[in-house]
Write a structure and sequence with these properties.
The structure is a homodimer. Chain A contains 13 helices and 11 strands. The first copy, chain A, is α/β, with parallel strands linked by helices and about 350 residues long.
């Protein structure tokens, strides 16, 4: 399937620099067709500055307005000439198969759901985040914040969508699916988790039961299912702990001259850990369940993060993940799962 | 107030070694009255082995049975001669003011609530965990798992109990209380969080609003209020991330001879970070809202963790935290808070 990526050029904090550089890097790496959406004269000038000419794979759509972090997601759609809105419009109009933005994530979720629309059979789209495991693999967790209060039927559907995504995009042959809970014994979990646990026992996935969040980095489970409230708290806890550990380490090392010398010698090891835990590697979170590939990056995205988000977006289109999700859900509608 | 601590001698994985050594360390440090509950002949032999004689502050209650990790919490009470059950019985019978156990935490919560009983006015006891901040302070979060599904009135009461605990036991003059959510803007949070947010606006605490979990280590909030499901997930995420970061660092350092040398030079800095993030420093979690001081430690507790749990238990009794909580709740019953 043809994979044209619509890139919102005015999403990141430092836009459009990271977007333009990331797009050019993606084209250099894999000749991806990219539509840069934003202030066209400025974008063209930026491209020429970086590489002299406009590559054949790159086209432009002029969109002079911008969605800011202050824009209420529900009202984003009204800014018809905003780069993010136009980027989602392109997918809706089948002029692109994927969209990447590093802007206001609430607005992006809203545009994905309302403008691009849901895949047939999807009750609620969900946000998927990727995590590195200590053995070099990748796990995913969903929902990371698109749906704050989730019904058991939605969570069961996240399991199916996540499993198909892991198989199609991450090439995991038989993804193990776990339901996030405060313990692994039968009967653990909130009321909603206990009801979902029953649904998942008969769902069309390799369900391994309740899992605790400290398993996230260990590699024993490929797809972690959680409601968007708890998922978002887990994500932000992860960021907070990594920050705190490295801040403390830096401070204690700086207080000791010998340790400073030691840290210089150990710097390549630190860099290797940083690269493994690096947000840039995965580029962006996936809004799964919409009728297109939608990737939402961090405001702090650098060119590498943008490039990798484009790469994942293209891979998702080419893998046929959405077609597989639509047919998977058609074969197992929520009603049938519920009767389980 | 007299502070006698009943110590379950058969709770930790390596029991009774850590318990006996921890009790002796607590006595050596601060002449604490401790009742060791368990297999008395064995415990007496262990004490004599470690210090020759039985110190005056130490007494024994014989309890030949043991609660294991396999015992269902709801049935723990039936093992009348188990060390954990007898330790809680002592508080109930006013033969001790505090109880410390490193055993089955579900059973301990059940015994605290059913045997010792709730403080007047408390709807639900909650588990309090302590976290170190990067600036050397301490924050607490509750509930960490005693109540999986929480009503807004319970969460509002956790805020009051946590605030009084932080003032009495941690000596924070005016604790800042935050409600854990997936964002700080008005309207964020689950349905239950949004309802709690309204209650807290008029609660008798210094409420600073919605807080995200990456603030936990930064020191801008003293008391984090969360339901027991999400709280437990946050705790286990924290443990998982710290483990993963140090496992990865160790592996990358070992793969590089120069980095190995560097890590040796930097070892004191690593040890300082480990000490700051060390579970042993806080010893145990507090079951807050029961009519006594109840501290529940990790199965992996070492003598230092036991000693510190005893120290906190004693400090809690001497601070009059429970009396302050009972009068605080009497002055602000949930009905009045609800009416706002």
């Amino acid at each position: 399937m043809r994979a044209r990526v619509a890139l919102d050029a005015h999403g990141s904090d430092e836009n459009p620099g990271p977007e333009v550089a990331g797009a050019l890097a993606a084209i250099a790496e894999a000749q991806t067709e990219i539509v840069l959406v934003g202030d066209q004269p400025r974008l063209e000038a930026e491209v020429r500055k970086l590489r002299g000419n406009i590559p054949a794979e790159l086209s432009f759509v002029h969109a002079p307005d911008v969605i800011t972090m202050e824009d209420a997601p529900a009202k984003a759609r009204r800014k018809k000439d905003a780069s993010m809105v136009r980027a989602f419009d392109l997918v809706k109009a089948h002029q692109a198969e994927a969209v990447v933005t590093a802007g206001n994530s609430g607005a992006a979720m809203m545009l994905g759901t309302l403008v691009v629309g849901r895949l047939p059979g999807v009750i609620r789209p969900a946000i998927v985040n990727h995590f590195p495991t200590i053995d070099g693999g990748t796990t995913i967790m969903l929902d990371m914040g698109a749906n704050v209060d989730c019904k058991p039927e939605w969570l069961a559907q996240f399991a199916t969508m996540g499993s198909i995504y892991a198989r199609s995009v991450l090439k995991i042959a038989e993804p193990r699916v776990g339901l996030v809970a405060n313990g692994t014994e039968e009967g653990k979990g909130s009321e909603s988790v206990r009801a979902t646990h029953e649904l998942l026992k008969t769902a069309p996935v390799k369900y391994i039961g309740l899992v605790e969040p400290h398993e996230l980095f260990k590699g024993g489970c490929d797809v972690f299912v959680v409601d968007g409230f708890a998922g978002n708290l887990i994500l932000k806890t992860t960021e907070g702990v990594v920050d705190a550990v490295f801040t403390l380490l830096k401070r204690e090392i700086k207080a000791r001259p010998l340790a400073m010398l030691g840290a210089m010698l150990a710097a390549p090891a630190f860099r290797a850990v940083k690269a493994k835990s690096d947000y840039d590697e995965y580029g962006a979170a996936t809004l799964l369940g919409v009728d297109g590939a939608a990737f939402i990056g961090h405001g702090r995205s650098n060119p590498k993060a943008i490039k990798n988000a484009i790469k994942f977006a293209r891979r998702m289109v080419e893998s046929g993940a959405n077609e597989a999700i639509a047919s998977g859900l058609a074969a197992n509608p929520p009603e049938r799962i519920s009767r389980g």
